[in-house]
Amino acid sequence: MAAFYFELVSPEKLLFTGNVEAVGVPGSDGDFTVMKDHAPVMTTMRPGIIDVNESGAKSVRLFVRGGFADVSTKGLTILAEQAIPLDQLKADDIAREIKNAEEDLADAANEDARTKAQERLDQMRELKAALGI
Amino acid sequence: MASLKDLRTRISSVKATQKITKAMQMVAAAKLRRAQMAAEAARPYAERMGSVLANVAGGMKGSGPALLAGNGKDQVHLLVVCTAERGLCGAFNSSIVRLARERIYALQSQGKTVKILCVGKKGWDQLRRQFNAQIIDLIDLRSVRNLAFSDADIIAKKIIALFDAGEFDVATLFFSRFRSVIAQIPTAQQIIPAQIEGGAATASAYEYEPGEDDILATLLPRNISVQVFRSLLENAASEQGARMSSMDNATRNAGEMIKKQTIVYNRTRQAQITKELIEIISGAEAL
């Protein structure tokens, strides 16, 4: 498989840079996989798992708390709000996120905020179920 | 003429001061390395953010949301002045404040309204003497040990809330860019309306998911947080750099002072001994 350039940055640091074969991205309108020569796309991300397939069997999975994915002719750039490698992710982190989302939902003042908080809560719960922790 | 005892106290007091400045210099050097690493680690994100924003803005039809295009007015300016929480770092704080002050005078002479948001206590201390009426808030980062993105996010949210409430039209960020240990450059950067670095790029045919507007609506506030975060990190590194070099100077000055005082002390002691000897000899001769 052909490789393309991929970058993963969070506000605190550059987490990953290099050539990869495929990256699974949790887009806010649905998951998609980016491979070489993907059409240029710009999308927001929901909280979920990024699946980086470097070459052959070697792959890295990271949890992201949302952000942006930018596919251009040069490659894929992911601007993550926060990214944690899956093996360092603890059940507490997810539990805390869920609690935060629940609080947001309770505090939501208007319809818009409530929808957003509810969405986030659902996404976090889904994620928790998927990870089985 | 100071007595020998006076001289001794003076020397030991300068020695004590030198110990303190030396210690401060070493602490600043250690902190500087960490701050510099943090500032460098944050740079890629800010750069990518800028290019993504340029891409989106370049491919956009129409003027876009207010955070990007401004609200069409230029009357009320908000100056976000970021300084340190502590002093004893040379001209670091005053050079940022000076830049802000010049800007305030320039704006006022053009008949614009100025509002100030202080981040960091030292800038507030200096600005409130002249511009107490214009200062709308002070954000204290004293309790923050390690600067995290969430701290910048809080400040950015505050700025955006003020903008949405129509409190100001243009926002500018004042901070010190870290060039090296001896050079920190006070900088003013406009954040609202957003400045696209290197002009709007001619974007390839992008597809947007969800819509273009939705993306910009999340991207623009995020961009402000990133800019604030970057300026806070640059500031932190600059502060430590400035402190390190000014404490280095202070230590050297103290060393010189000790040398001079010691010479005076030795001379005085010698003079006194000579005087006493003469007294004894002339006393013996008189017998």
Task: List the defining traits of the structure above.
heterodimer, A: 133 residues, alpha+beta, ATP Synthase, domain 1, 2 domains, five-stranded mixed beta sheet, five-stranded antiparallel beta sheet, 10 strands, B: 287 residues, alpha/beta, Pyruvate Kinase, Chain: A, domain 1, 62% helix, elongated
Count of discrete domains of chain A: 2
How far apart, in Å, are the first and last alpha carbons of chain A?
A: 33 Å
Helix content of chain A: 25-40%
Second rung of CATH, namely the architecture of chain B: 3-Layer(aba) Sandwich
How many strands appear in the DSSP assignment of chain A? 10
Strand content of chain B: 5-15%
The CATH topology of chain B, please?
Pyruvate Kinase, Chain: A, domain 1
Whole-angstrom Rg of chain B: 28 Å
Order of helices and strands of chain A: EEEEEEEEEEHH
How many DSSP H or I helices of chain A?
2
Order of helices and strands of chain B: HHEHEHEHEEEH
Biggest β-sheet: strands ordered side by side in the sheet of chain B: 3-2-1-4-5
